[in-house]
Amino acid sequence: MPKQNLIREMLEEELDRNARAQAAYRAQRDSLPRGSVMVKTRGAKRYCYLKFRDGARTITDYVGIADAVEDGLRAQVEQRKAAEAAIRQLKAEQHYIERALKL
Amino acid sequence: MSENTAREETFWKLLNALEKANVLQHVMIVGTWAEWLYIDYFASLADGELYKVDIGKTHDMDVFFRNAMMEIEGADRLQTYLKEAGFVPGQDFRGTFFMGGIEVEFLASQLGTGPGVVEIPSVGIKAERLKELDMLEPLVVLKGGFMITVPTPASYVVHKLYINPTRRPKSKRAQNLRKIDVLLNAMYEIPGQMNALEAYLEKLPEAKLEQVRKVARENSIALPGEEQI
Predict the structure, then answer these.
(1) Which of B90, B97, B170 sits opposite A9 (nearest CB)?
(2) Which of B91, B97, B171 sits opposite A9 (nearest CB)?
(3) pTM for this structure?
């Protein structure tokens, strides 16, 4: 197999793997809550909300009593941010491979 | 953190999840990570480091279930442990997991079956069935506090030579042969390795042996018992 074809095949394989990784992280991101966690205190109780943008609107969704849900919710929001960061990184790699394939 | 350090960290996270689920002792690490584990193994057998492997370009970690149908207590927690460690399940038909650009792939033997994907009942993860994985004989190495099963270098070399003509993607064929050549050169310097290789070759059925020797000859790879041209 000529060397150029070998390199092309390797890059294409990397591109496939990159696409599979992006699909995995997108699925993970979409299964997690978006926005930021907000806690409001009323009287003796603390209530947890999720605040996020939907186009021009800012939406605040009630999630539950803070003691019961806050830690889990914050962890999920962090996981979503990590998934978004991974997708950004993978997209950058994808563009790099695509540029190399055009050479 | 360097890219290689990050890769190593991902590898240890994988092993940790496998061990927590009681699965590590039942699987074999194959591919580039097995080669990477040979570095210390060879260094323990010889004076100094005779062998180097660049893990900087590898994007996969291959885990071979030696007995796909075996019941393993606690193994059903593997997916949970992988997710807790930060691995993300893939979305296609294969049971892969991702961490960044690293893909963890589970493999099973094709023995008595055809190619395709099989679900490993004990872990509920799909594995790709690959040809001739049963040629790999186990060797346990100790690294990072884990007892890790890898193929013996002899069986690894012979397996790679044997499957080379049908290796997919084709781009991996030349690359694999280069790596095998480097590994063999190190094995020639390490006491016992050539004897092990000779003994392994002797056990092979005639047709397999002929194929292995043919691939080695065509690529100027020196096997014991063969004159180098």
Answers:
(1) B170
(2) B171
(3) 0.88
